Amino acid sequence: MLNSKIPAGPLDNKWTDYKGHCKLVNPANKRHIEIIIVGTGLAGASAAAALGELGYKVKTFCFQDSPRRAHSIAAQGGINAAKNYQNDGDSTFRLFYDTVKGGDYRAREGNVHRLAEVSANIIDQCVAQGVPFAREYGGLLSNRSFGGTQVQRTFYAAGQTGQQLLIGAYQAQERQIALGNVTQYSRHEMLDIVKIDGKARGIIARNLVTGELERHFGHAVLLCTGGYGNVFYLSTNAMGSNVTAAWKAHVKGAFFGNPCYTQIHPTCIPVSGDHQSKLTLMSESLRNDGRIWVPKKQGDSRKASEIPEDERDYYLERRYPAFGNLVPRDVASRAAKERCDAGYGVGTSKQAVYLDYADAIDRYGKIECRKLGINNPDADTIRKQGMAVVKAKYGNLFDMYEKITGENPYEIPMRIYPAVHYTMGGLWVDYELMTTVPGLYCLGEANFSDHGANRLGASALMQGLADGYFVIPYTIGNYLADDIRTKPIPTTDPAFEAAEKEVRERIETLMKIKGKQTVESFHKRLGKIMWDKCGMARNEKGLQEAIVEIQQLRKEFWSDVRIPGDIKEMNPELDKANRVADFIELGELMCKDALNRRESCGGHFREESQTEEGEAMRDDENFQYVAAWEFKAVSNWELHKEELKFEVAKPTQRSYK
Amino acid sequence: MEHYNMNLTLKVWRQKNKDDRGQFETYQVKNISSEMSFLEMFDVLNEELIREGRDPITFDHDCREGICGACSMYIDGRPHGPWEANTTCQLHMRAYKDGDTIVVEPWRAKAFPVIKDLMVDRSAFDRIIQAGGYISVNTGNAVDANAMPIEKDKADLAFANAACIGCGACVASCKNSSAMLFLSAKVSHLALLPQGDPERKDRALNMVAQLDKEGFGGCTNTGACEAVCPKEISISNIARLNSEYLRAGLTVDK
Fold it and tell me: Chain B residue closest to A47 (CA)?
């Protein structure tokens, strides 16, 4: 019953063939077609710009005070593209292959190949918009490596690549606003999808400043609302990042794909105490030059500088000599957890490993001295020169580390530990990015489609912009071409009224509870259950317990939550309560999905399924499918399976040794 | 790094909505760890207020890693507090000691009306960008990214200006509530790149016109903006903007 609509024909022809044959909407008709876009990160802003340019009437919504603040802005390291500017053997095929392998053979070949094909266009488009990528002295673009690959295909702008790409997309969106093609609604949260005759035809949004509910019609609705990592309470996501829009769509009929696939990023600043509100990532690009180690002795409490070289265990280099510190994120995270669990962790919490730049400073220092013609430089000169190079490459990241921890990473190795970062799961979409609700699309991190069970570094920015700039402008036309005779439906339609009533009643119910416990305290408890039992390692017993605990938590939430203030005003606690209520329901589904998937793959590690060396062990015979969950009622889902076929990238046991 | 706990007195601006007159209220916070961020200290206070049945303090914040530009507290007379090149969310409590009193206000400028407590409306910045803060290139029109080499120094300088996070600290610090640092950063980012060249005249003229329309004040070169900018955007951009504007005004041919 699930039709992924992958075009027939050879893999490298599918997208070209699709574009050559999909239906088109003529410019005169585009003017009469309205499209709603929820979320204005890379996927949403790029879609808004591209669709506005085509002449559609677009409305965009974001909960932040400006589209420029969407959390794509915080992506640090870079964006992949198969340009092969470095002459190091890259190609569309290799980017495709690395991504499918990196995703542990749980992504669709057709989607991933398309992503690799359009990757080069993204870089061209961004440069044309004025995105200031890093350049070499000759004036051409610079590249660096990221985990899980052996070529240099990552384009970057210092440690602020996401910011620069988002500002580019934001400016393109603002240009369409100025031209009257796009209308922006900031500080608005989508609280429901409106369906008429089975098709998505609009949304109910709440103006967060006034508390008023609004009805908006669209011939089609695009959700570009990002990931759901905040279900863990502590994550690298922004405080406002939430699953609400996607969850409402799920409850209204959109299947949820692979909810248990969570990416735990290996290099984050460790938790410092109970007050912690979020975790901060240190870009994966740091693993290019930094070396990760722990002491060879258990419970070693000496300072890093007092531990001699031969008493250090560079465990990634030891276990994975081929990729070393550049193994994919899932592998690096589990290896850190393994060392800390075994008692080799460092710092006061012992839940951290070192990321050390001493060698890099020395190596770069020597190169600089050679360049400058300094013969027999002393250690201080080498160090000074090396520090200048490291500062130029990673300065903003080092500054951020120092601000948070109060320690100088040029002098003392950084302490890092894995943290929840990205969610590969999301709303199930077909090749056209349409969910199981006709006319409802899902783009970027919010969908499940391109990263399988593990996303490679520098691929999230690529996917968000691919979906928005280069995929949806084609695929949405194929749907809307049949809709050109549909006149805008007045928002007085009973379907809008019913949806608004449902939203209003839920808010009133929440406000009337007037219990004792704060929203934040529920969120923290949910996060702890998820991290302990559905985090980096999962097992049957833990997941079963988690499901019961989450169900209990939900009951408690709906009978004892305390929300201050009123409905008709700016009330961030109410906004948060709405989101946490949805996170609780999602948490249960994630555990259910993780329980069902009795194999290890990518970011999903089932303790029951591992090799003798402790590596993740897939079970292709039984689990080579996308788990797409259909919502039936609270705590009740039906599983649908989309079988994955690999015609080109044949599944093998992933090895980075 | 030695950690310690502290008790503090906070004087915080409370204002129910844009029409309310507003006033300071005083709060005592106890056992604040030096490892907390400034906003985590506010989280602790808010949790306490909610438990006591009082209204928590509303403030803007999102990424909490110094890049989204949402946070915007005016702390002891300085946007984003005492640290150099910093945002409120990255200010940590080790900047304070036991017994300190801290005064926290919203950004204050006519063009940034208060929504509630410490939260203000900065949509004027979006409208300034709409007036020309972009390069007009439709999706799909681009040539190969390496077709046009760009001098590294210029590209680096464009990047330094594109690093603006649109927080509005420059406006909040300025005695004239001028937004010239924000505007000049965008004009400079685009004027320094060859891609931005075809539109540079209209861009300078239209963006400045919008700036005036929004009710921001004029620049009198005091330099407060540069001193508080979390991304260290240089005031020399304002000189560049002035020359762009002058040149456009003298040579524009429509």
Answer: B139
